UniProtKB/TrEMBL annotation, chain A:
Domain of life: Bacteria
Name of this protein: ABC transporter ATP-binding protein
One Pfam family from the record: ABC_tran
Keyword ATP-binding: yes
One annotated GO molecular function: ATP binding
Key words of the record: ATP-binding, Nucleotide-binding, Transport
Residue ranges annotated for the ABC transporter domain, each copy included: 5-234
InterPro entries: AAA+_ATPase (IPR003593), ABC_transporter-like_ATP-bd (IPR003439), ABC_transporter-like_CS (IPR017871), ABC_transporter_ATP-binding (IPR050763), P-loop_NTPase (IPR027417)
SMART domains: AAA
The keyword Zinc is annotated on this UniProt entry: no
Automatic annotation (TrEMBL), chain B:
Compartments (UniProt record): Cell inner membrane; Membrane
Aminoacyl-tRNA synthetase in keyword set: no
Domain ABC transmembrane type-2: 22-251
TM ranges: 24-46, 66-85, 143-164, 170-191, 228-248
Membrane topology: Multi-pass membrane protein
UniProt record similarity statement: Belongs to the ABC-2 integral membrane protein family.
A molecular function (GO) term: ABC-type transporter activity
Alphabetic keyword roster: Cell membrane, Membrane, Transmembrane, Transmembrane helix, Transport
InterPro entries per record: ABC-2_transport_permease, ABC2_TM, ABC2_TM_bact-type, ABC_2_transport
Protein's recorded name: Transport permease protein
Lineage: Bacteria, Pseudomonadati, Pseudomonadota, Alphaproteobacteria, Sphingomonadales
């Protein structure tokens, strides 16, 4: 499948000498939700800004639906909508006027029906004649999304869409992103809330210190790197792992009240039945058993710290 | 999408004009009141003691100079705030990410700022008719000078807006450069009234040529020939245009 966005060998060194990106290669598939994960200062916003034309790359090329973003910015940019991280809005304008402005700026004739649809989807229709300065922070964020969607982009960039947003709005936002994807919009979001990527993304990229560490299918990534844990709550606390259980590499948690077994979720033989049998033989009684999958967050922290 | 992004130009123009209309009182009333005060003080009180310059009485002589003074300061402040404010609030991200070329962007911003200046210039002209006898020998040339000067100085203002890193720098050039140059540029007197060497020094002041040409369109005579006036105005226009093209080529103070 032809990718809708192709970033190759993009590097950026700021005038201050700070290296923000180093040889980044990235292919985004048409219609997918791609989450770019990374700690603060990893280069997420720089990468997005370069693709959108706000920052000039030091080297590298970007193709947006086959159009070179640097040589033919008009064709490339008209396909992109950007929701920035900062709440940068024209305070004195009304919601409807600022959306009309954005649509015009991207070269499109006014379309009342489309404008109304977007405002309704974002629960902003009732506020269309309100000045932006009168709106709450969450509403302002929605206005930014409305502006980005005003010209019907094929690719939508969301830079930290849910930073500083309350739980209910975050859920709304996730729902909206889902419905945009259903309409065929390709979505690229940056976040440092792993939960967000886990909830929505088809694929995940991890960036740290300007380098793209990996790009992987989310499910595959979690399978590949995912570990599972089994915790046994003991009836009698233990001071140390009893002899005879060495082959399972167990650890004691919670001051000897819990016995933890970490195993590979992908392995054919998990070793659980034999462990339970052995515990029975040794007379170690447990009152509860709990298993858990490691989250994307664990995987992420693991990755970033390893490098 | 190819060709010219007319919707984009129109969007910017409309946005800027809406900004003007929001501050209509300040935009229009201030120049009207200020120029009325000039006419009362210089034209009425002091002017009655001053001889006619050529065959033009002093009150009428003031009109082109006053319009020019307002035109220059208004054009600069309008256009500079127009582009500085998005930089300040961060909304410039949208302009930079939009499929709009540098020229289209400038046409939108400078067009709106120049429109406002021309309108204010005409308002002052009408206001002055209440105080003095007006005579306009070359109305077409008068409008041409009005428009050309507004466009040139709106471009200059745009450059200042891009260059400025704070509100202080924004008012620096109009207050410390343009106002003195205009006062010394024959807005209120004919440079022929100056003793040497100041008369010759004045000829290095570009504003002299702007005021002189504009005055010629009213009374058929100026300090320098109208050809020179037109030449200097045109040169300044091209200079600003060149600077703007360079700004967008290099991304100077707009992009990292």
């Amino acid at each position: 499948m032809q990718s809708i966005l192709s970033v190759s060998q993009v590097s950026k060194t700021y005038a201050s000498g700070q290296k923000a990106l180093e040889h980044v290669d990235l292919e985004i598939r048409r219609g997918e939700i791609f989450a770019l994960l990374g700690p603060n200062g990893a280069g997420k916003t720089t990468l997005i800004s370069i693709i959108c034309g706000i920052v000039t790359p030091s080297s590298g090329t970007i193709l947006v639906d086959g159009h070179n973003a640097i040589r033919h910015p008009r064709e490339a940019r008209s396909r992109i909508g950007l929701v920035p991280q900062e709440l940068s809005v024209d305070m004195f304008e009304t919601v409807a006027a600022t959306m009309r402005f954005s649509r015009g700026l991207f070269g499109k004739a006014p379309d009342k029906a489309h404008t109304e649809q977007v405002l309704r989807d974002l629960s902003l229709w009732d506020k269309r004649d309100a000045k932006i300065m009168e709106l709450s922070g969450g509403m302002k964020r929605r206005v930014l999304i409305a502006k980005a969607l005003s010209h019907e982009p094929d690719i939508l960039f969301l830079d930290e869409p849910t930073a500083g947003v309350d739980v209910s709005l975050r859920r709304d936002m996730w729902k909206l992103i889902g419905s945009l994807r259903a309409r065929g919009v390709t979505i690229i979001l940056t976040t440092h809330y792993i939960e967000e990527a886990e909830e929505m993304a088809d694929r995940v990229g991890v960036i740290n210190k300007g380098q793209l560490l990996l790009v992987e299918d989310k499910a595959a990534l979690m399978k590949k790197l995912g570990k599972r844990e089994m915790d046994l709550s003991l009836v009698e606390p233990l001071s140390e792992v009893p002899a005879g259980l060495e082959e399972w590499h167990l650890s004691l948690e919670d001051e000897g009240h819990r016995l933890r077994y970490v195993f590979d979720a992908q392995a054919e033989r998990t070793g659980i039945p034999s462990l339970l049998r052995k515990l029975g033989e040794l007379g170690i009684a447990f009152k509860d058993l709990d298993t858990s999958k490691s989250s994307l967050e664990d995987i992420f922290v693991d990755l970033v710290e390893k490098r | 999408m190819t060709g010219i992004n007319l919707h984009g130009i129109w969007a910017i123009y409309r946005f800027e004009m809406a900004r003007t209309l929001r501050t209509l009182w300040q935009s229009v009333a201030t120049p009207v009141i200020t120029t009325s005060l000039y006419f009362i003080v210089f034209g009425g009180a002091i002017g009655s003691k001053i001889d006619a310059i050529g065959d033009v009485n002093y009150g009428s002589f003031l009109v082109p100079g006053l319009i020019m003074l307002t035109l220059l300061t208004q054009s600069i402040s309008n256009a500079s705030i127009g582009i500085y404010f998005p930089k300040f609030t961060g909304t410039i991200f949208e302009l930079l990410s939009a499929p709009i070329s540098a020229i289209e962007l400038v046409v939108g911003y400078v067009g709106a700022a120049a429109t406002k200046s021309v309108v204010i210039g005409l308002i002052i002209l009408i206001t002055s008719a209440f105080f003095v006898d007006l005579r306009i020998d070359h109305p077409v040339a008068m409008i041409a000078f009005l428009v050309l000067t507004s466009v040139a100085f709106s471009m200059f203002g745009f450059i200042i807006g891009v260059w400025a890193k704070g509100f202080e720098q924004l008012s620096f050039v109009p207050a410390l450069l343009i106002t003195p140059l205009t006062f010394l540029g024959g807005a209120f007197y004919s440079i022929d009234m100056l003793p040497e060497p100041w008369r010759t020094v004045s000829l290095f002041n570009p504003v002299v040529y702007l005021v002189s040409g504009f005055r010629w369109s009213f009374f058929g005579a100026g300090d320098v020939s109208v050809g020179w006036s037109l030449g200097v105005t045109g040169f300044f226009l091209l200079l600003c245009l060149g600077l703007i093209v360079a700004i967008f080529r290099t991304g100077y103070r707009l992009k990292n």
